[in-house]
Design brief:
Oligomer: single chain
CATH superfamily: Vaccinia Virus protein VP39
CATH class: Alpha Beta
CATH topology: Rossmann fold
Strand order of the largest sheet: 3-2-1-4-5-9-8
Number of strands: 9
Strand content: 25-35%
Length: about 210
């Protein structure tokens, strides 16, 4: 059964060009900078949560990462991503799943890097946030890394027609808990393809 969130994102990726959605980045430099600082081995597992059709995956493959898990609630998004990657898709495991009601993601193990750009801020209910956190705690290995980028406190109250919950670094730290050490954070003003400004906060944590 397709839930409301799944229907929303499938519709978005069916009807809009990937390069025109409000979160598209041709070159996701800020995420790549944080990933480089993690200094993980190229064959360690990277989980990109809510990947959509992100160009980050192309960049990771080009840098030699070989064990990438791309997950999204939208099968349409993953279809577009897989088609674009072509032969590079052999380095990626594509998983359609809902992070708030996971059927597959919670069975993963030994994730060296959890990457989330713009998923957490869509989870406005405590039950959704707790499901996200429960999965994260289950799959990220000791000393593993967590990158979370979300709308900052002065960011937009909505995205893609949906309400969002805005964050600063301390709120993300509180959400993850004392088991995670904040390694780096910064504010970043992202410009959408249409030219609108979207203030983000980027955070990098390491599990103890």
């Amino acid at each position: 059964m397709v839930n409301e969130r799944e229907h929303h994102w499938n519709t978005v990726y069916k009807e809009e060009e990937v390069t025109e959605v409000g979160w598209y980045e041709e070159s996701p430099e800020k995420c790549l900078e944080l990933i480089e600082k993690c200094n993980i081995n190229l064959d360690e597992k990277i989980l990109d949560v809510g990947v959509g059709a992100s160009m980050l995956i192309d960049n990771l493959i080009n840098k030699g990462y070989k064990n990438i898990i791309a997950t999204d609630i939208s099968k349409e998004a993953l279809k577009k991503l897989k088609n674009r990657l072509g032969e590079g898709a052999s380095f990626v495991d594509f998983v359609v799943d809902d992070i708030t009601q996971p059927e597959h993601l919670n069975k993963l193990k030994d994730i060296a890097l959890w990457h989330d750009r713009a998923v957490l801020h869509f989870l406005t209910k405590d039950s959704e946030r707790q499901a996200y956190l429960s999965t994260l705690l289950q799959v990220v290995k000791p000393s593993g890394y967590v990158i979370i980028a979300a709308f900052s406190l002065d960011g937009a109250p909505k995205c893609s027609g949906l309400d969002v919950r805005r964050y600063d670094k301390d709120m993300i730290q509180e959400f993850l808990g004392d088991e995670f050490v904040l390694k780096e954070h910064f504010n970043y003003l992202y410009h959408t393809p249409s030219g609108n400004e979207r203030p983000y906060v980027y955070t990098l944590f390491q599990r103890k």
